[in-house]
Amino acid sequence: SLSLSLSLASRLVSSRVSSRLSLVSRLVSLCLSRVLSLSVSLASRLSLSLSLSFSRVSSRLVSLSSRVSSLSASLASCLSLSLSRLVSLSLSLSLSLASRLSLSLSRVSSLSLSRVSSLSLSLSLSLSLSACLSFVPSLSRLVSL
Known about the structure:
Blueprint (H helix, E strand, L loop, with lengths): L1 H143 L1
């Protein structure tokens, strides 16, 4: 009878322990499944937030690149306009200087020509006067004869 009671007691204890262990295993499996589901949801949320942040950063970078390209285009146009203005100003200045130099050279050449002509006239007059003066004594000799 004692052996039967001990065997029954051991069976009861083992059944209770096994039931409790099964409950504990079920609870552990439920906890693990919840932890896994929470980790999956957190990972999905993190991936969504990262994708949104990357998309925002990429859109900002695209807008910045477009702004930089527009600024570079405007700077290039301003530089080309300034260079064209400088070239036109240098050409106009060079043309004005060339015209002034040509005018001054023409004036100098005209003055030198007038001086040369006046000098040639004075020389011709002096030569003609000296010739006349050289003929005067010969004429006076002829008249005296």
